[in-house]
Amino acid sequence: MNRSLLYVTIGPVQSFIEQARKTQDLYIGSLLLSHLSQTGMNLIRSQYGGTIIFPNPENDSAPNRFVASLSGHYSIDEVGGQVERHIHEEFMRIGKSLIGPDKLSFFVSDSFRQSYFEQLEAHLQIFWVGIPYDDYHRSYAKLETLMGQVKNIRPFRQIEEQGRKCNLTGEHNVLFYRNPRVDKEGKRKFFIPEEAIPLNGERYVSYIREGEYLGALGFIKRFAFMDEAFKNKKIQFPSTAKVAMLDILTDEEIENDHIDYAYVFDILNENPPANDITEQQRRESDKLIQRLKAEKKRPNPYYAMIVFDGDSMGEWFGGGKLVHKEQLEAFQEKFTFCLGEYAKWAKRYLNGSRGKTVYAGGDDLFGFINLGCLFEVIDQLRQEFDRQVNQKLQGEFELSGQLTFTAGICIGHYKEPLADVVRGARYAEKIGKKVEPKRPDEQEKDAFCISVLKRNGEHLISALKWGVSSQENESTPRLLQQILALMTKHFSDTYLQVLSRELFAFTRKPFREMMEAELRRLLNRSFKKVDGVSREETVEELLSLLMKLWKISDYLPTINQKAVGVQTENHSILNFINTLYILSFLKRHQADGKGDGQ
Protein backbone atom coordinates (compact mmCIF):
# COMPACT_ATOMS: atom_id res chain seq x y z
CA MET A 1 0.00 0.00 0.00
CA ASN A 2 2.14 2.87 -1.23
CA ARG A 3 -0.62 5.03 -2.74
CA SER A 4 -3.72 6.81 -1.41
CA LEU A 5 -6.90 8.16 -2.96
CA LEU A 6 -8.35 11.53 -1.92
CA TYR A 7 -11.86 12.67 -2.87
CA VAL A 8 -12.84 16.33 -2.21
CA THR A 9 -16.16 18.09 -2.81
CA ILE A 10 -17.05 21.76 -2.33
CA GLY A 11 -20.58 22.97 -1.75
CA PRO A 12 -23.34 23.81 -1.62
CA VAL A 13 -23.38 23.74 -5.44
CA GLN A 14 -26.99 24.74 -6.17
CA SER A 15 -26.93 27.87 -4.00
CA PHE A 16 -23.35 28.69 -4.97
CA ILE A 17 -24.28 28.97 -8.63
CA GLU A 18 -28.02 29.07 -9.14
CA GLN A 19 -29.16 31.60 -6.55
CA ALA A 20 -29.14 34.49 -8.99
CA ARG A 21 -31.06 37.47 -10.33
CA LYS A 22 -28.72 38.21 -13.23
CA THR A 23 -26.96 35.90 -15.66
CA GLN A 24 -23.67 37.23 -14.39
CA ASP A 25 -24.55 35.95 -10.90
CA LEU A 26 -24.74 32.45 -12.35
CA TYR A 27 -21.44 32.87 -14.15
CA ILE A 28 -19.54 34.33 -11.18
CA GLY A 29 -20.89 31.58 -8.93
CA SER A 30 -19.60 28.98 -11.37
CA LEU A 31 -16.29 30.82 -11.73
CA LEU A 32 -15.81 31.01 -7.96
CA LEU A 33 -16.55 27.33 -7.49
CA SER A 34 -14.21 26.40 -10.33
CA HIS A 35 -11.47 28.61 -8.89
CA LEU A 36 -11.77 26.99 -5.45
CA SER A 37 -11.55 23.50 -7.01
CA GLN A 38 -8.50 24.57 -9.00
CA THR A 39 -6.98 25.96 -5.80
CA GLY A 40 -7.30 22.57 -4.09
CA MET A 41 -5.99 20.65 -7.10
CA ASN A 42 -3.03 22.98 -7.55
CA LEU A 43 -2.02 22.45 -3.91
CA ILE A 44 -2.12 18.66 -4.31
CA ARG A 45 0.00 18.77 -7.45
CA SER A 46 2.54 21.39 -6.34
CA GLN A 47 3.02 20.55 -2.67
CA TYR A 48 2.37 16.82 -2.59
CA GLY A 49 3.17 15.71 -6.14
CA GLY A 50 -0.28 14.14 -6.51
CA THR A 51 -2.03 13.17 -9.73
CA ILE A 52 -5.51 14.48 -10.46
CA ILE A 53 -7.65 11.57 -11.67
CA PHE A 54 -10.80 13.63 -12.22
CA PRO A 55 -11.45 16.22 -13.63
CA ASN A 56 -8.94 17.30 -16.26
CA PRO A 57 -7.03 20.01 -14.33
CA GLU A 58 -6.35 21.89 -17.58
CA ASN A 59 -10.08 22.52 -18.12
CA ASP A 60 -11.09 26.08 -17.16
CA SER A 61 -14.48 24.94 -15.87
CA ALA A 62 -13.60 22.62 -12.99
CA PRO A 63 -16.56 20.95 -11.23
CA ASN A 64 -17.08 21.14 -7.49
CA ARG A 65 -15.34 17.80 -6.89
CA PHE A 66 -12.02 16.19 -7.65
CA VAL A 67 -10.28 12.87 -7.06
CA ALA A 68 -6.51 12.61 -6.64
CA SER A 69 -3.94 9.85 -6.27
CA LEU A 70 -1.14 10.51 -3.75
CA SER A 71 2.10 8.88 -2.73
CA GLY A 72 1.96 6.85 0.49
CA HIS A 73 4.78 9.00 1.90
CA TYR A 74 2.17 11.56 2.99
CA SER A 75 -0.46 11.13 5.69
CA ILE A 76 -3.87 11.23 4.00
CA ASP A 77 -5.31 12.99 7.06
CA GLU A 78 -2.65 15.68 6.77
CA VAL A 79 -3.21 16.21 3.05
CA GLY A 80 -7.02 16.23 3.31
CA GLY A 81 -6.97 18.69 6.19
CA GLN A 82 -4.49 20.95 4.44
CA VAL A 83 -6.53 20.98 1.21
CA GLU A 84 -9.68 21.88 3.15
CA ARG A 85 -7.92 24.74 4.97
CA HIS A 86 -6.32 26.01 1.77
CA ILE A 87 -9.66 26.18 -0.09
CA HIS A 88 -11.39 27.82 2.88
CA GLU A 89 -8.62 30.42 3.28
CA GLU A 90 -8.77 31.31 -0.41
CA PHE A 91 -12.54 31.85 -0.23
CA MET A 92 -12.19 34.08 2.82
CA ARG A 93 -9.26 35.95 1.20
CA ILE A 94 -11.44 36.84 -1.79
CA GLY A 95 -14.19 38.06 0.52
CA LYS A 96 -11.76 40.16 2.53
CA SER A 97 -10.10 41.68 -0.51
CA LEU A 98 -13.41 42.94 -1.93
CA ILE A 99 -14.13 45.17 1.06
CA GLY A 100 -10.59 46.54 1.19
CA PRO A 101 -10.02 50.31 0.83
CA ASP A 102 -8.34 49.79 -2.56
CA LYS A 103 -11.48 48.18 -4.06
CA LEU A 104 -14.59 50.08 -2.97
CA SER A 105 -14.79 53.51 -1.40
CA PHE A 106 -16.90 53.03 1.71
CA PHE A 107 -16.37 52.86 5.45
CA VAL A 108 -16.57 49.39 7.01
CA SER A 109 -17.69 49.24 10.62
CA ASP A 110 -16.75 46.50 13.08
CA SER A 111 -20.33 45.25 13.27
CA PHE A 112 -20.42 45.08 9.47
CA ARG A 113 -17.19 43.05 9.38
CA GLN A 114 -18.56 40.62 11.94
CA SER A 115 -21.79 40.05 9.99
CA TYR A 116 -19.98 39.88 6.64
CA PHE A 117 -17.47 37.22 7.67
CA GLU A 118 -20.06 35.24 9.64
CA GLN A 119 -22.17 34.93 6.50
CA LEU A 120 -19.19 33.76 4.45
CA GLU A 121 -18.05 31.29 7.12
CA ALA A 122 -21.53 29.79 7.30
CA HIS A 123 -21.81 29.24 3.56
CA LEU A 124 -18.86 27.16 2.38
CA GLN A 125 -18.95 23.38 2.97
CA ILE A 126 -15.92 21.22 2.17
CA PHE A 127 -16.07 17.42 2.46
CA TRP A 128 -13.21 15.01 1.87
CA VAL A 129 -12.44 11.33 2.31
CA GLY A 130 -9.18 9.49 1.77
CA ILE A 131 -8.09 5.86 1.83
CA PRO A 132 -4.90 3.92 1.08
CA TYR A 133 -5.20 1.43 -1.76
CA ASP A 134 -3.60 -1.49 -3.54
CA ASP A 135 -6.59 -2.86 -5.49
CA TYR A 136 -7.63 0.29 -7.37
CA HIS A 137 -11.12 -0.80 -8.47
CA ARG A 138 -12.30 -1.95 -5.04
CA SER A 139 -10.71 1.02 -3.30
CA TYR A 140 -12.36 3.52 -5.64
CA ALA A 141 -15.78 1.92 -5.06
CA LYS A 142 -15.20 2.21 -1.31
CA LEU A 143 -14.16 5.86 -1.73
CA GLU A 144 -17.47 6.69 -3.45
CA THR A 145 -19.43 4.93 -0.69
CA LEU A 146 -17.56 6.80 2.05
CA MET A 147 -18.17 10.17 0.40
CA GLY A 148 -21.89 9.42 0.21
CA GLN A 149 -21.91 8.65 3.92
CA VAL A 150 -19.98 11.80 4.82
CA LYS A 151 -22.30 14.04 2.77
CA ASN A 152 -25.35 12.55 4.48
CA ILE A 153 -24.19 14.29 7.65
CA ARG A 154 -24.49 17.97 6.80
CA PRO A 155 -23.32 20.23 9.61
CA PHE A 156 -24.60 23.79 9.50
CA ARG A 157 -23.82 26.97 11.35
CA GLN A 158 -26.79 28.87 12.72
CA ILE A 159 -26.60 32.66 12.51
CA GLU A 160 -29.21 34.65 14.40
CA GLU A 161 -30.18 37.52 12.09
CA GLN A 162 -33.25 39.73 12.11
CA GLY A 163 -33.92 42.03 9.21
CA ARG A 164 -34.39 42.18 5.46
CA LYS A 165 -32.79 39.27 3.57
CA CYS A 166 -30.54 39.15 0.53
CA ASN A 167 -32.38 39.22 -2.83
CA LEU A 168 -30.11 36.50 -4.22
CA THR A 169 -29.94 33.91 -1.46
CA GLY A 170 -32.92 34.81 0.73
CA GLU A 171 -30.92 33.44 3.65
CA HIS A 172 -28.86 36.19 5.27
CA ASN A 173 -29.27 39.83 6.23
CA VAL A 174 -28.74 42.64 3.76
CA LEU A 175 -25.27 44.17 3.96
CA PHE A 176 -25.32 46.18 0.70
CA TYR A 177 -28.18 47.94 -1.05
CA ARG A 178 -29.05 50.49 -3.71
CA ASN A 179 -32.06 52.38 -2.46
CA PRO A 180 -32.88 55.40 -0.30
CA ARG A 181 -32.51 54.19 3.25
CA VAL A 182 -35.03 56.51 4.90
CA ASP A 183 -38.57 57.54 4.06
CA LYS A 184 -39.91 61.09 4.02
CA GLU A 185 -40.18 61.13 7.81
CA GLY A 186 -36.57 60.08 8.25
CA LYS A 187 -37.37 56.55 9.40
CA ARG A 188 -35.43 53.47 8.30
CA LYS A 189 -37.07 51.61 5.43
CA PHE A 190 -37.45 47.89 4.82
CA PHE A 191 -35.73 46.70 8.05
CA ILE A 192 -32.25 47.33 6.65
CA PRO A 193 -29.56 46.72 9.34
CA GLU A 194 -27.73 49.82 10.58
CA GLU A 195 -24.35 48.50 9.42
CA ALA A 196 -25.53 47.93 5.81
CA ILE A 197 -23.66 49.94 3.16
CA PRO A 198 -25.41 51.93 0.38
CA LEU A 199 -24.00 51.53 -3.14
CA ASN A 200 -25.77 54.50 -4.71
CA GLY A 201 -23.01 56.00 -6.87
CA GLU A 202 -23.03 55.79 -10.69
CA ARG A 203 -19.98 53.51 -10.62
CA TYR A 204 -22.19 50.78 -9.12
CA VAL A 205 -25.09 51.09 -11.60
CA SER A 206 -23.96 48.12 -13.72
CA TYR A 207 -23.63 45.82 -10.71
CA ILE A 208 -26.57 46.55 -8.43
CA ARG A 209 -29.97 47.77 -9.56
CA GLU A 210 -32.27 50.19 -7.78
CA GLY A 211 -34.14 48.28 -5.07
CA GLU A 212 -31.64 45.38 -4.82
CA TYR A 213 -30.38 44.15 -1.46
CA LEU A 214 -27.35 41.89 -1.15
CA GLY A 215 -25.77 39.81 1.58
CA ALA A 216 -22.10 38.81 1.66
CA LEU A 217 -22.40 36.00 -0.89
CA GLY A 218 -24.53 38.10 -3.24
CA PHE A 219 -21.97 40.90 -2.99
CA ILE A 220 -19.12 38.53 -3.87
CA LYS A 221 -21.03 37.29 -6.92
CA ARG A 222 -21.44 40.85 -8.17
CA PHE A 223 -17.95 42.16 -7.39
CA ALA A 224 -15.59 39.14 -7.54
CA PHE A 225 -14.16 40.49 -10.81
CA MET A 226 -12.24 43.05 -8.72
CA ASP A 227 -10.15 40.34 -7.05
CA GLU A 228 -6.70 39.51 -8.40
CA ALA A 229 -7.67 35.86 -8.94
CA PHE A 230 -9.95 36.92 -11.81
CA LYS A 231 -7.97 39.80 -13.31
CA ASN A 232 -7.24 37.81 -16.47
CA LYS A 233 -10.82 36.55 -16.85
CA LYS A 234 -13.47 38.24 -18.95
CA ILE A 235 -16.20 38.58 -16.36
CA GLN A 236 -18.81 40.34 -18.52
CA PHE A 237 -21.66 37.91 -19.18
CA PRO A 238 -24.55 38.56 -21.60
CA SER A 239 -27.95 39.33 -20.14
CA THR A 240 -31.00 37.24 -21.01
CA ALA A 241 -32.16 40.14 -23.21
CA LYS A 242 -28.90 39.97 -25.17
CA VAL A 243 -29.09 36.18 -25.58
CA ALA A 244 -32.62 36.56 -26.94
CA MET A 245 -31.34 39.11 -29.48
CA LEU A 246 -28.10 37.38 -30.57
CA ASP A 247 -29.34 36.22 -33.98
CA ILE A 248 -29.92 39.78 -35.20
CA LEU A 249 -26.72 41.32 -33.81
CA THR A 250 -23.53 41.99 -35.75
CA ASP A 251 -20.20 40.64 -34.48
CA GLU A 252 -19.24 44.16 -33.35
CA GLU A 253 -22.47 44.54 -31.38
CA ILE A 254 -21.98 41.14 -29.72
CA GLU A 255 -18.52 42.24 -28.56
CA ASN A 256 -19.75 45.63 -27.34
CA ASP A 257 -20.18 45.39 -23.56
CA HIS A 258 -21.76 48.85 -23.27
CA ILE A 259 -25.14 48.06 -24.84
CA ASP A 260 -28.01 47.60 -22.38
CA TYR A 261 -30.37 45.19 -24.15
CA ALA A 262 -33.25 45.53 -21.69
CA TYR A 263 -33.20 49.26 -22.50
CA VAL A 264 -33.23 48.40 -26.23
CA PHE A 265 -36.33 46.21 -25.77
CA ASP A 266 -38.04 48.92 -23.70
CA ILE A 267 -37.50 51.61 -26.34
CA LEU A 268 -38.47 49.35 -29.26
CA ASN A 269 -41.65 48.38 -27.39
CA GLU A 270 -42.32 52.06 -26.59
CA ASN A 271 -42.03 51.48 -22.85
CA PRO A 272 -40.21 53.74 -20.39
CA PRO A 273 -36.78 52.33 -19.44
CA ALA A 274 -37.07 50.12 -16.36
CA ASN A 275 -33.47 50.50 -15.13
CA ASP A 276 -30.85 53.19 -14.67
CA ILE A 277 -28.02 53.08 -17.22
CA THR A 278 -24.87 55.12 -17.75
CA GLU A 279 -24.57 57.76 -20.46
CA GLN A 280 -22.18 55.55 -22.44
CA GLN A 281 -24.64 52.65 -22.30
CA ARG A 282 -27.39 54.96 -23.55
CA ARG A 283 -25.32 56.15 -26.52
CA GLU A 284 -24.29 52.64 -27.59
CA SER A 285 -27.80 51.27 -27.08
CA ASP A 286 -29.34 54.07 -29.16
CA LYS A 287 -27.07 53.14 -32.10
CA LEU A 288 -28.43 49.58 -32.06
CA ILE A 289 -32.01 50.84 -31.76
CA GLN A 290 -31.56 53.09 -34.81
CA ARG A 291 -30.14 50.20 -36.88
CA LEU A 292 -32.94 47.80 -35.94
CA LYS A 293 -35.58 50.42 -36.77
CA ALA A 294 -33.92 51.25 -40.08
CA GLU A 295 -33.78 47.55 -41.03
CA LYS A 296 -37.29 46.92 -39.64
CA LYS A 297 -36.06 44.10 -37.43
CA ARG A 298 -38.09 43.08 -34.41
CA PRO A 299 -36.16 41.07 -31.80
CA ASN A 300 -37.60 37.96 -30.21
CA PRO A 301 -37.94 38.39 -26.41
CA TYR A 302 -37.47 34.69 -25.56
CA TYR A 303 -34.31 32.63 -25.00
CA ALA A 304 -33.49 29.06 -23.97
CA MET A 305 -31.56 27.81 -20.95
CA ILE A 306 -29.98 24.35 -21.16
CA VAL A 307 -28.65 22.07 -18.44
CA PHE A 308 -27.40 18.61 -19.25
CA ASP A 309 -25.81 15.87 -17.23
CA GLY A 310 -24.20 12.61 -18.26
CA ASP A 311 -26.42 9.62 -17.54
CA SER A 312 -25.32 7.41 -14.62
CA MET A 313 -21.93 9.13 -14.52
CA GLY A 314 -21.05 7.80 -11.09
CA GLU A 315 -21.57 4.23 -12.29
CA TRP A 316 -19.62 4.89 -15.50
CA PHE A 317 -16.65 6.58 -13.83
CA GLY A 318 -16.56 3.93 -11.10
CA GLY A 319 -16.17 1.21 -13.74
CA GLY A 320 -19.71 -0.15 -13.52
CA LYS A 321 -19.89 -0.45 -17.32
CA LEU A 322 -16.27 -1.58 -17.72
CA VAL A 323 -16.02 -5.31 -18.47
CA HIS A 324 -12.36 -5.66 -17.44
CA LYS A 325 -12.21 -4.01 -14.00
CA GLU A 326 -8.42 -4.17 -13.82
CA GLN A 327 -8.39 -1.44 -16.52
CA LEU A 328 -10.24 1.06 -14.33
CA GLU A 329 -7.30 3.41 -13.72
CA ALA A 330 -6.48 3.63 -17.44
CA PHE A 331 -10.20 3.94 -18.26
CA GLN A 332 -10.63 6.86 -15.85
CA GLU A 333 -7.59 8.61 -17.29
CA LYS A 334 -8.99 8.34 -20.82
CA PHE A 335 -12.48 9.26 -19.63
CA THR A 336 -11.23 12.41 -17.92
CA PHE A 337 -9.22 13.45 -20.98
CA CYS A 338 -12.19 12.97 -23.34
CA LEU A 339 -14.54 14.91 -21.09
CA GLY A 340 -12.01 17.76 -20.87
CA GLU A 341 -11.64 17.94 -24.66
CA TYR A 342 -15.41 17.88 -25.13
CA ALA A 343 -15.83 20.69 -22.58
CA LYS A 344 -13.36 22.87 -24.49
CA TRP A 345 -15.17 22.18 -27.76
CA ALA A 346 -18.61 22.91 -26.24
CA LYS A 347 -17.50 26.32 -24.97
CA ARG A 348 -15.97 27.27 -28.32
CA TYR A 349 -19.06 26.08 -30.18
CA LEU A 350 -21.72 27.73 -28.03
CA ASN A 351 -20.08 31.02 -27.08
CA GLY A 352 -20.68 33.82 -29.58
CA SER A 353 -23.76 34.24 -31.77
CA ARG A 354 -25.33 30.95 -30.61
CA GLY A 355 -25.37 31.63 -26.87
CA LYS A 356 -23.09 31.42 -23.84
CA THR A 357 -21.91 28.75 -21.41
CA VAL A 358 -22.12 29.32 -17.67
CA TYR A 359 -19.97 26.24 -17.17
CA ALA A 360 -18.93 23.24 -19.22
CA GLY A 361 -17.36 20.42 -17.25
CA GLY A 362 -17.53 17.74 -19.93
CA ASP A 363 -19.98 15.48 -18.10
CA ASP A 364 -22.32 18.42 -17.55
CA LEU A 365 -23.11 21.80 -19.07
CA PHE A 366 -25.15 24.84 -18.11
CA GLY A 367 -25.72 27.60 -20.62
CA PHE A 368 -27.95 29.88 -22.67
CA ILE A 369 -29.03 29.42 -26.29
CA ASN A 370 -30.59 31.85 -28.76
CA LEU A 371 -33.90 30.45 -30.00
CA GLY A 372 -32.94 30.92 -33.64
CA CYS A 373 -30.50 28.02 -33.43
CA LEU A 374 -31.96 25.96 -30.56
CA PHE A 375 -32.40 22.63 -32.35
CA GLU A 376 -29.13 22.96 -34.26
CA VAL A 377 -27.21 23.57 -31.02
CA ILE A 378 -28.71 20.77 -28.91
CA ASP A 379 -28.25 18.35 -31.82
CA GLN A 380 -24.59 19.28 -32.20
CA LEU A 381 -23.96 19.05 -28.44
CA ARG A 382 -25.42 15.54 -28.40
CA GLN A 383 -23.66 14.34 -31.58
CA GLU A 384 -20.25 15.62 -30.47
CA PHE A 385 -20.63 14.11 -27.00
CA ASP A 386 -21.17 10.75 -28.66
CA ARG A 387 -18.27 11.22 -31.05
CA GLN A 388 -15.70 12.77 -28.70
CA VAL A 389 -16.47 10.82 -25.52
CA ASN A 390 -18.61 7.71 -26.05
CA GLN A 391 -17.12 6.45 -29.31
CA LYS A 392 -13.53 7.05 -28.20
CA LEU A 393 -14.11 5.07 -25.01
CA GLN A 394 -15.86 2.31 -26.94
CA GLY A 395 -12.86 2.14 -29.27
CA GLU A 396 -10.36 1.43 -26.48
CA PHE A 397 -12.32 -0.48 -23.82
CA GLU A 398 -14.91 -3.24 -23.71
CA LEU A 399 -18.03 -1.63 -22.27
CA SER A 400 -21.50 -2.94 -21.50
CA GLY A 401 -23.48 0.07 -22.69
CA GLN A 402 -23.45 3.41 -24.51
CA LEU A 403 -22.52 6.62 -22.69
CA THR A 404 -25.29 9.21 -23.11
CA PHE A 405 -26.56 12.42 -21.54
CA THR A 406 -29.95 13.92 -20.74
CA ALA A 407 -30.76 17.60 -21.24
CA GLY A 408 -33.34 19.91 -19.73
CA ILE A 409 -34.24 23.00 -21.75
CA CYS A 410 -36.40 25.85 -20.49
CA ILE A 411 -37.60 28.64 -22.77
CA GLY A 412 -38.39 31.86 -20.95
CA HIS A 413 -39.03 35.56 -21.55
CA TYR A 414 -36.09 37.83 -20.84
CA LYS A 415 -38.19 39.53 -18.13
CA GLU A 416 -39.06 36.22 -16.45
CA PRO A 417 -37.33 35.94 -13.04
CA LEU A 418 -34.09 34.09 -13.71
CA ALA A 419 -34.61 31.77 -10.75
CA ASP A 420 -37.89 30.56 -12.29
CA VAL A 421 -36.17 29.70 -15.58
CA VAL A 422 -33.39 27.87 -13.73
CA ARG A 423 -35.99 25.84 -11.83
CA GLY A 424 -37.79 25.17 -15.11
CA ALA A 425 -34.60 23.86 -16.73
CA ARG A 426 -33.77 21.69 -13.72
CA TYR A 427 -37.32 20.32 -13.66
CA ALA A 428 -37.12 19.54 -17.38
CA GLU A 429 -33.84 17.70 -16.81
CA LYS A 430 -35.46 15.74 -13.97
CA ILE A 431 -38.34 14.74 -16.27
CA GLY A 432 -35.84 13.71 -18.97
CA LYS A 433 -34.01 11.49 -16.48
CA LYS A 434 -37.27 9.61 -15.83
CA VAL A 435 -37.69 8.62 -19.50
CA GLU A 436 -37.81 4.83 -19.86
CA PRO A 437 -36.91 2.79 -22.97
CA LYS A 438 -39.76 1.57 -25.19
CA ARG A 439 -37.72 -0.52 -27.64
CA PRO A 440 -35.07 -3.25 -27.11
CA ASP A 441 -32.34 -1.11 -28.73
CA GLU A 442 -32.94 1.86 -26.38
CA GLN A 443 -31.33 2.79 -23.07
CA GLU A 444 -32.79 4.45 -20.01
CA LYS A 445 -32.67 8.25 -19.93
CA ASP A 446 -30.76 9.42 -23.07
CA ALA A 447 -33.46 12.05 -23.67
CA PHE A 448 -34.19 15.75 -23.73
CA CYS A 449 -37.12 17.62 -22.26
CA ILE A 450 -38.29 21.08 -23.36
CA SER A 451 -40.27 23.36 -21.06
CA VAL A 452 -41.82 26.69 -22.10
CA LEU A 453 -42.76 29.38 -19.57
CA LYS A 454 -45.09 31.74 -21.42
CA ARG A 455 -45.73 35.28 -20.21
CA ASN A 456 -49.45 34.52 -19.85
CA GLY A 457 -48.64 31.84 -17.24
CA GLU A 458 -49.19 28.86 -19.52
CA HIS A 459 -46.62 26.09 -19.20
CA LEU A 460 -45.82 23.59 -21.95
CA ILE A 461 -43.55 20.57 -21.56
CA SER A 462 -42.54 17.62 -23.74
CA ALA A 463 -39.95 14.85 -23.47
CA LEU A 464 -38.37 12.91 -26.35
CA LYS A 465 -35.49 10.54 -26.98
CA TRP A 466 -32.53 11.94 -28.93
CA GLY A 467 -32.97 9.51 -31.81
CA VAL A 468 -36.01 8.95 -34.02
CA SER A 469 -34.82 5.40 -34.70
CA SER A 470 -31.64 3.36 -34.64
CA GLN A 471 -31.00 4.35 -38.27
CA GLU A 472 -28.06 6.64 -38.97
CA ASN A 473 -28.73 10.40 -38.85
CA GLU A 474 -32.27 9.98 -37.52
CA SER A 475 -32.01 12.80 -35.00
CA THR A 476 -35.06 14.09 -33.13
CA PRO A 477 -33.83 17.73 -32.92
CA ARG A 478 -33.33 17.73 -36.69
CA LEU A 479 -36.82 16.27 -37.12
CA LEU A 480 -38.27 19.09 -35.01
CA GLN A 481 -36.30 21.67 -37.02
CA GLN A 482 -37.72 20.29 -40.28
CA ILE A 483 -41.27 20.36 -38.92
CA LEU A 484 -40.80 23.93 -37.69
CA ALA A 485 -39.47 25.08 -41.08
CA LEU A 486 -42.51 23.68 -42.93
CA MET A 487 -44.98 24.99 -40.33
CA THR A 488 -43.46 28.46 -40.63
CA LYS A 489 -43.50 28.64 -44.42
CA HIS A 490 -46.66 26.84 -45.48
CA PHE A 491 -49.18 26.16 -42.68
CA SER A 492 -51.38 28.06 -40.25
CA ASP A 493 -51.94 26.73 -36.73
CA THR A 494 -55.61 25.91 -37.21
CA TYR A 495 -54.85 22.21 -37.73
CA LEU A 496 -53.23 22.05 -34.31
CA GLN A 497 -56.12 23.76 -32.56
CA VAL A 498 -58.67 21.43 -34.16
CA LEU A 499 -56.53 18.34 -33.52
CA SER A 500 -56.10 19.12 -29.83
CA ARG A 501 -59.87 19.48 -29.42
CA GLU A 502 -60.46 16.19 -31.24
CA LEU A 503 -57.94 14.27 -29.14
CA PHE A 504 -59.45 15.56 -25.91
CA ALA A 505 -61.84 12.59 -25.71
CA PHE A 506 -59.24 9.88 -26.34
CA THR A 507 -58.00 7.84 -23.39
CA ARG A 508 -55.91 5.57 -25.65
CA LYS A 509 -53.56 6.47 -28.45
CA PRO A 510 -55.51 6.33 -31.77
CA PHE A 511 -54.49 3.87 -34.46
CA ARG A 512 -51.77 5.11 -36.81
CA GLU A 513 -54.03 4.90 -39.88
CA MET A 514 -56.74 6.95 -38.16
CA MET A 515 -54.24 9.60 -37.06
CA GLU A 516 -52.62 9.81 -40.48
CA ALA A 517 -55.94 10.27 -42.28
CA GLU A 518 -57.11 13.01 -39.90
CA LEU A 519 -53.78 14.86 -40.02
CA ARG A 520 -53.84 14.80 -43.83
CA ARG A 521 -57.34 16.31 -43.83
CA LEU A 522 -56.43 19.05 -41.33
CA LEU A 523 -53.13 19.92 -43.03
CA ASN A 524 -54.89 20.34 -46.37
CA ARG A 525 -57.23 22.84 -44.76
CA SER A 526 -54.35 24.70 -43.03
CA PHE A 527 -52.12 24.97 -46.09
CA LYS A 528 -51.23 28.53 -47.09
CA LYS A 529 -51.36 28.77 -50.86
CA VAL A 530 -48.12 30.01 -52.46
CA ASP A 531 -47.46 30.23 -56.20
CA GLY A 532 -45.18 27.46 -57.41
CA VAL A 533 -45.61 25.31 -54.27
CA SER A 534 -47.52 22.04 -54.59
CA ARG A 535 -50.16 21.60 -51.89
CA GLU A 536 -50.19 17.82 -52.18
CA GLU A 537 -46.40 17.39 -52.01
CA THR A 538 -45.97 19.87 -49.14
CA VAL A 539 -48.80 18.31 -47.12
CA GLU A 540 -47.37 14.83 -47.61
CA GLU A 541 -43.88 16.04 -46.62
CA LEU A 542 -45.10 17.53 -43.34
CA LEU A 543 -47.42 14.58 -42.73
CA SER A 544 -44.51 12.15 -43.03
CA LEU A 545 -42.53 14.15 -40.46
CA LEU A 546 -45.49 14.44 -38.09
CA MET A 547 -46.10 10.70 -38.22
CA LYS A 548 -42.47 10.13 -37.21
CA LEU A 549 -43.06 12.47 -34.27
CA TRP A 550 -46.29 10.62 -33.45
CA LYS A 551 -44.37 7.34 -33.37
CA ILE A 552 -41.80 8.60 -30.84
CA SER A 553 -44.20 10.49 -28.57
CA ASP A 554 -44.53 7.72 -25.97
CA TYR A 555 -41.86 8.91 -23.54
CA LEU A 556 -43.43 11.58 -21.35
CA PRO A 557 -43.34 10.53 -17.66
CA THR A 558 -45.81 11.78 -15.05
CA ILE A 559 -45.69 15.59 -14.87
CA ASN A 560 -47.37 18.46 -13.11
CA GLN A 561 -50.86 18.57 -14.65
CA LYS A 562 -50.64 22.36 -15.03
CA ALA A 563 -48.00 21.80 -17.71
CA VAL A 564 -50.34 20.77 -20.50
CA GLY A 565 -51.46 21.98 -23.91
CA VAL A 566 -54.50 19.68 -23.96
CA GLN A 567 -56.35 18.05 -21.07
CA THR A 568 -55.97 14.29 -21.52
CA GLU A 569 -54.94 11.35 -19.41
CA ASN A 570 -52.96 9.79 -22.27
CA HIS A 571 -49.30 10.79 -22.02
CA SER A 572 -48.52 9.95 -25.65
CA ILE A 573 -51.23 12.32 -26.91
CA LEU A 574 -50.17 14.95 -24.38
CA ASN A 575 -46.54 14.71 -25.42
CA PHE A 576 -47.35 14.90 -29.14
CA ILE A 577 -49.68 17.89 -28.83
CA ASN A 578 -47.38 19.74 -26.40
CA THR A 579 -44.46 19.28 -28.78
CA LEU A 580 -46.50 20.78 -31.61
CA TYR A 581 -47.61 23.67 -29.40
CA ILE A 582 -43.96 24.32 -28.52
CA LEU A 583 -43.07 24.36 -32.23
CA SER A 584 -46.01 26.71 -32.86
CA PHE A 585 -44.71 28.97 -30.09
CA LEU A 586 -41.23 29.00 -31.65
CA LYS A 587 -42.77 29.78 -35.04
CA ARG A 588 -44.44 32.90 -33.63
CA HIS A 589 -41.36 34.05 -31.74
CA GLN A 590 -38.67 33.82 -34.35
CA ALA A 591 -36.70 37.02 -34.92
CA ASP A 592 -38.58 39.48 -37.15
CA GLY A 593 -41.78 37.59 -36.44
CA LYS A 594 -45.03 39.08 -35.22
CA GLY A 595 -44.92 37.59 -31.74
CA ASP A 596 -48.01 37.74 -29.56
CA GLY A 597 -46.03 39.07 -26.61
CA GLN A 598 -46.82 36.04 -24.46
What does the secondary structure layout of this molecule look like, with pairings?
Blueprint: E1 3-11, H1 13-18, H2 23-48, E2 51-54, E3 65-71, H3 76-98, H4 110-123, E4 125-133, H5 136-152, E5 176-177, E6 197-198, E7 213-214, H6 216-223, H7 240-245, H8 251-255, H9 261-268, H10 279-294, E8 302-310, H11 313-317, H12 328-350, E9 355-360, E10 364-370, H13 374-396, E11 405-413, H14 418-433, E12 447-453, E13 459-465, H15 476-490, H16 494-503, H17 512-526, H18 535-551, H19 571-588
Parallel strand pairs: 5-6, 11-12
Antiparallel strand pairs: 1-3, 1-4, 2-3, 5-7, 8-10, 8-11, 9-10, 12-13
Helix pairs in contact: 2-3, 2-6, 9-10, 12-13, 13-15, 15-18, 15-19, 16-17, 16-19, 17-18
InterPro entries: Cas10-Cmr2_palm2 (IPR054767), Cmr2_N (IPR038242), CRISPR-assoc_Cmr2_N (IPR024615), CRISPR-assoc_prot_Cmr2 (IPR013407), Rev_trsase/Diguanyl_cyclase (IPR043128)
GO molecular function, one term: nucleotide binding
Domain Cas10/Cmr2 second palm: 302-436
